[in-house]
Design goal:
Two copies of one chain form a homodimer. By secondary structure, chain A is of the alpha/beta class. Helix content of chain A is about 40%, strand content about 15%. Chain A is built from 16 helices and 18 strands.
Chain lengths: ~475, ~475
């Protein structure tokens, strides 16, 4: 570690003669961050090393770091050092620009994603990405170490296309225990996130001759694009307070239906028990495939989560979930629980498109699940996101009482209905003027007239790091309070 | 310890409305154990934590636990908590089931693979998998640690669909330096191995209206299956000592050609310079796509390896490579260097099939490349495999002098032409009797009459761990020496 720091080289204009050394160091660091000499993401030397370099007391350095962390210029994580986060509140905060560039230009190209905010928007309240500063780096490294230390060599060969057996074993138990999924390790297919799983299912549907897929009135455009790409037509279903409405034209012609039963994305209602039964009966009667996207099933705040729809009809529902919300999307770890009758086709699609996740991360996730660390991480995240949701509701009810948060208390996003008379485009533009990136509900509309809804924003409250969250929602509330 | 239990997460269908809460909880736990959602060995949350979760009295939970312990479903140990023991009297010991699941799973469906030898065949000389005991576990863990310690949070979001910038940067430099590839980080697309990359290219070809792909007379059946699956017809090309023969019917109708220029797989010759130019001119003249599978380009033993064909025509060749041979196939890390004119289509295919590799491993590979560890690993592997090839040639020339090793001194496999009069099926059967798994050259024949060759075995000499290699080749030689 110390060696690493020895390589850190930075010219700081610290006035070592002055009486107020600490203040001078703070100013020098702020200046270096502001003018880009210390770009966001830079790790600072340990306070001990920097103090030795500058010939000043370690406490002076530590106090300066602490002050800048409090101000939002730096962030610190125990065991991982101190980092540059960017100029707090600056409309051109460089970290926002970096995020925008890194996220593929904000084209919405990544699935379940919060595209990087436009250049200059420092606060990202688009839905889809969890708080990445909460990713348990140390625990993940420890799980990787245990996986590498304990796995036989053959697990490093081309993995079983369904995933390595220890992870399928762990997932089958985990999904049964936490989501009520009725499956076994032989019918788990580990995939690289939900879009990968959905792309495999789309291939299977195409090969089976399906022509259309029923989709919810609102959902991720990327998911619809995955289905369209293989030639499947989209048949949007209406939704009401009970969730998607089965029956009618959309189901009549569909070979499958894509649903988010636990927490409709993005509208936020739960698919009612009677509706679940109707979908299951439709699938059983027609041989259609129900695809259950359980994207945030572990994150329910008001009561115990509703179990997976899959348990109602394990022969007709493909259940899909990921570690993207509980850990990080960058891990690209997801899973399907596949009905036995479809398993061979799904595995063939996986083999001939070659996109499955690597064995080492699979083994690490298995370690994390069986050790209890994954549950622990979810528990922490649930508490944190629940608190964020409460704070969002409180901030809006105080500053913009005419805006209304709808949907159940769950997940990582909320739908905020706009004050009467406001249009989504105006509210988004107003938020942008306040430095906040959000999306309108219209972005998720599947079209075909199924999605008539009052104007609303879809607010992802998980993405900003903790130190930025209060400001982010205050600015959003201010934007919504405007005439 | 207590904290750990508080984080246990379980979906239980407990009827919280009823008067007999304890009985309902008991029933729910029994059902969960019976149908496997709570597998034997699962540790239950502390009664205090579960009671808090469910919003019921702790005594109710404690009584239910006590009842189930008495019935044999659970066991409790002071200070160690409460465990699931299984359905009372169930015959199947859980650890045996776990072991069976772990050892299962043929790998025959994976690409570039050495399918697991038949039960009872102790020595695997099928081509495709490196010596997994040489995987540098410690170095990989160290690279993962450095990656996790030094990467800003935003790299853990949905990755750029081309791969994380540090890895694209490292690969562009590495490929230029070691293989003469002419590219830059913007045109690198990181993928999950060559089959994943090929599947992306097959999609692009299909979308461009290509109808056929020229393939070499011999190659991996999995690669041909990837192309066929999207509706592309295969047009096999003849090969001679100079490699694949351009021109004629196969190229006349093809929108692409798939080639292994450095070391034809599996025949073993290098594509001659004049042939490379002819293919490049064909592609430039017709707008066709050349796909260069550089599967073992770093492994040449007799002289400096021939550079990548890609440098001849960077606007027409998609270069593909992987870390599967240098590190391990299980990492699922590969890369394409894509002509600029095709980049957007390849990236769109990657986004809408969702199968890219995870960010942490990408960052670890970037670390390994920039630190020099990847080069070092390749040097070690090259020395080891060169020695294995020499020993194979020596063993065969001594014990089975009528068998002939053909192809250049390179790679991880050799083609062994059989003694006159012997058929491939007989040689394979004889090897099996000696406990050795090999494949015949016929397994790789693309058909259509392009592949007339003397009977031969394709011997992968990289797979057996060092301690087994001497015996493996002695047994193969003995099998080939039989009449």
């Amino acid at each position: 570690m110390a060696e690493h720091w020895a390589n850190f080289d930075l010219h700081l204009d610290v006035n070592l003669e002055g009486a107020r050394l600490g203040r001078s160091l703070e100013d020098a660091l702020r200046a270096a961050i502001r003018d880009g000499r210390l770009p966001p993401g830079t790790r600072l030397p340990a306070s001990r090393a920097l103090a030795a370099d500058l010939g000043i007391a370690r406490n002076t350095v530590a106090d300066a770091f602490g002050q800048l962390v409090a101000e939002g210029w730096l962030s610190a994580r125990t065991g991982a050092g101190t980092w540059v986060t960017g100029s707090p509140g600056a409309p051109d905060a460089p970290d926002a620009a970096v995020r925008a560039a890194e996220s593929g230009g904000g084209t919405g190209s990544a699935p379940h994603t919060a595209p990087g905010p436009r250049r200059g928007l420092g606060y990202n309240l688009r839905p889809g990405v969890p708080d990445l500063s909460a990713f348990p780096r140390r625990e993940w490294l420890a799980a990787t170490r245990r996986a590498l230390a304990s796995s036989p060599d053959h697990l490093l060969a081309y993995p079983d296309p369904r995933g390595v057996p220890p992870l399928r074993q762990a997932l089958a138990g985990y999904l049964a225990r936490t989501r009520g999924v009725s499956t076994d390790p032989e019918r788990i297919v580990v995939c690289s996130g939900f879009v990968h799983g959905l792309a495999l299912l789309a291939q299977v549907l195409g090969a089976r001759g399906a022509r259309a897929v029923a989709v919810e009135s609102h959902g991720l455009p990327e998911h619809r694009a995955v289905l369209s790409r293989v030639g499947l037509r989209l048949a949007p279903m209406r939704a009401d307070a009970q969730g998607a409405v089965p029956g009618g034209a959309p189901l009549g012609e569909a070979g499958a239906a894509l649903l988010t039963p636990a927490h409709q994305f993005p509208l936020g209602m739960t698919l009612a028990p009677a509706r679940r039964r109707m979908f299951a009966e439709w699938a059983a009667g027609t041989g259609a495939m129900l695809i259950e996207d359980d994207y945030d099933g572990e994150f329910r705040y008001d009561r115990h989560p509703v179990g997976a729809m899959q348990a109602l009809a394990p022969d007709h529902v493909v259940y899909g979930g990921t570690a993207s919300k509980a850990l990080a999307p960058g891990l690209r770890l997801g899973w399907l629980a596949v009905p036995g009758r479809l398993l061979e086709e799904v595995v063939t699609a996986a083999v001939l498109t070659g996109g499955g996740p690597d064995a080492v991360n699979q083994l690490a996730l298995a370690e994390l699940i069986t050790s209890g660390g994954y549950d622990r991480q979810i528990r922490h995240a649930r508490l944190a996101y629940r608190g964020r949701r409460d704070r969002l509701v409180a901030a809006l009810s105080q500053a913009a009482p005419l805006a209304r948060v709808t949907g159940i208390a769950a997940g990582l996003h909320a739908v905020v209905e706009l004050p009467p008379g406001r249009r989504e485009t105006d509210a988004i533009a107003s938020a942008e003027r306040h430095g906040v990136a959000v999306l309108g509900l219209g972005e998720f509309d599947a079209g075909a007239g199924a999605g008539q809804r009052p104007p609303a924003l879809v607010v992802g409250y998980a993405t900003p790091p903790p130190h930025a969250y209060t400001t982010a929602i205050a600015r959003l509330a201010a934007a919504l309070a405007e005439e």
